[in-house]
Amino acid sequence: MRILLVEDNHELAAWLGKALKQANYAVDIAHDGEDAGHLLKVAEYAVVILDLSLPKIDGMTLLKRLRQAGNKVPVVILTANASLDGRVAGLDGGADDYLAKPFEIAELEARIRALVRRGHDRAAPQVTIGDLLFDGGTRQFTLAGETLVLTPREHAVLEHLVLKVGTTVAKATLSESVFGFDDAADASAIEIYVHRVRKKLEGSSAQIATLRGLGYMLRHAG
């Protein structure tokens, strides 16, 4: 799952980016509104985390342009302005949520999960494929009743596939959900992570099938 973080404070952006990657998200970081606007034109994101006090193009202007262009990506505003007027202006401007600085990373992660669920217009999904269970509320996997231990990128691969269970996911689409622009990943990198996830699913009834020329599909092996 890919997130765009727009924050002009480089130290805060680096800290948030690291924390979100540890929480199994792929993260792109922009330090000004102009760069963020470009990224939003060339990539698809599950959520945008947006600071308002940005150079070149401020956050509110960027948000209004985003909505005027018909982009409905969920947006969480981060700002030091915790006033009622500030919150109202942000929400009226097209934001989906508002978080005042300072904040706890656990709260930000919870709000991201809530926005993703809202975007799918459903409650937190529980997806079962044989003995593999995905809890959308916690974003945790269990296999045969035991916690499935995955690296962040393995988790990103399996999460994307499980939310598209039974349908074909193109290799490029899967790669875009796992790697950010700053990640050094060649065209074959996604194949490595798919292989690693397959190894961890060995012996289970959940199977990642390769559809030549099309992509991958997670399905019940039976």
From TrEMBL:
GO terms for molecular function: phosphorelay response regulator activity; transcription cis-regulatory region binding. GO terms for biological process: regulation of DNA-templated transcription. SMART domains: REC (SM00448), Trans_reg_C (SM00862). Residues 124-220 form the OmpR/PhoB-type domain. Keywords: DNA-binding, Phosphoprotein, Transcription, Transcription regulation, Two-component regulatory system. The modification 4-aspartylphosphate is found at D51. Residues 2-116 form the Response regulatory domain. Pfam families: Response_reg, Trans_reg_C. Residues 124-220 bind DNA. GO terms for cellular component: cytosol; protein-DNA complex. This is DNA-binding response regulator. It comes from Rhizobium grahamii. The lineage of its organism: Bacteria, Pseudomonadati, Pseudomonadota, Alphaproteobacteria, Hyphomicrobiales.
